[in-house]
Amino acid sequence: MKKRAIIFGVVIVIVASSCVDKFDLSGFKVENHLVVDGLITNDHGPYTVELYMSSGIGDNVDHPEYVTDAIVTIKNDLGESEILSEASDGIYRTAEDGLQGEIGRKYQLLIELPDGRSFQSPMDEMKAPGNIDDLFFEFKANSINGNDIALPQDAFWVYLNSSSDGSDDQHLFRWRWNGTYKIKTYPELHVVAVGNSFIPRPFPCSGYIVEEGNVLQKIRDCTCCECWKTEYGGSALISKNEFLEGGNFRRVPITKVPILRKIFEDGYYVQVEQMRISESAYNFWKLAEAYQASGGNIFQPNAVQIKGNISSTEGSDEVFGVFSVAGVTRKGVFLHRWNIPYGLAEGPIVTSPCYSVEVGATTTKPIFW
After folding, report:
1. 268 closest CA partner among 139, 87, 94
2. Would you say which domain of life the source belongs to (predicted)?
3. 214: which DSSP letter?
């Protein structure tokens, strides 16, 4: 069968130990192709594999066509294997007490579709992730959006220093980051207009009620006054020799955090994951990074052709994506409001529940806060 190359973009939207990355194939007129999106690490599972079909022009990429009823298996070099359960359409997961990723072991993904087609990844070794020796930041004025004074100009630039375990000289790493900030609101101060007056109407979750004379009375603790929002890096970040010194990486740029009042209410926590990945996964993310860097818009086609490490057992080229086998380690750092070399103006008082302020905000307090 004649091989076909596919041009597509990548959007990273999820960052967690056992979570996968999301590929966005919008804007490209391609035939439907299977997309495989999976990851196994030395973290405790469950591990996730997503199967869906590539999208053409005009398709809604927020609602992809997921592939259901497939048989998805992860196996290791000891002959141990686990068939993943379909947690929801196209989302396959190992059991909580299922197959565990271990440094030094090799892992492979096997897929059988309901129509009889089958696919696989190479048997890749999970290598030790090395160490993030230091995660630090520097304030830089007028360092982003320099051509638009209406947008934030100042930012903290976050860097890392890291080292490998010395087991090989390939230095194939990938980094992912996420940032978390606190949202504080005052739902007990909510009011409604009645004629020419404003009457207090606190939200029930505020813990306040209105007594006679429109007097606020606290009867319980607020359950919607404090939320936390986590945002995720959207770029492929892989190791480059330009930051390599004596086998260690120095001053690797991770992200820029704009100086915005809303994210520095109570500090901003940046967490970085360092993953030692296989050569096949590294080559995939290297091309993804180059694709993102060219032209600045991942939704516009260009000359980069990205091929993953999934192949058809029949030898066709009708599948793409990546199954990463990665040793992972993490490090975090707080960027505090007092690290900003000037004061931030106070913002408006928000009187709605905190979880309504930002999509994805949660009242669950992070363990690191």
Report:
1. 139
2. Bacteria
3. T
CA atoms within 13 A on the CB side of 258: 11
Between strands 319-335 and 34-41, the pairing is: parallel
Average pLDDT over residues 156-182: 89
Residues 213 and 229: their CA atoms lie apart, in Å, by 37
* Residue 202 near residue 217 (C-beta atoms within 8 A): no
Distance between start and end Cα atoms, the chain: 55
Q: Tell me if 366 sits within 8 A of 180, measured CB to CB.
A: yes
* pTM assigned to the model: 0.84
Buried/exposed code over 31-70 (b: 16+ C-beta within 10 A; e: otherwise)? eebbbbbbbbbbbebbbbbbbbbbbeeebebeebbbbeeb
Question: Which amino acid is present at 159?
Answer: Y
Closest of 367, 328, 346, 342 to residue 176, by C-alpha: 328
| Type of residue found at 268 | Y
Structure-block tokens of residue 21: 């990355």
What is the pLDDT of the chain when averaged over all its residues?
85
> CA 107, CA 120: separation in Å to the nearest integer?
11
**Chain centroid to CA 30:** 26
Bridge partners, residue 248, by sequence: 163, 245
Mean pLDDT of 168-192: 93
Strand partners, 335: 268
Element (H, E) at 244: strand 244-245
pLDDT at 17 exceeding the cut of 70? no
Residue 147: left (phi > 0), alpha (psi -120 to 50), or beta?
Answer: alpha
Please list the residues that pair with 253 across neighbouring strands. 159
State which amino acid sits at residue 38: G
Per residue in 102-113, pLDDT (tens digit) is 999 999 999 999
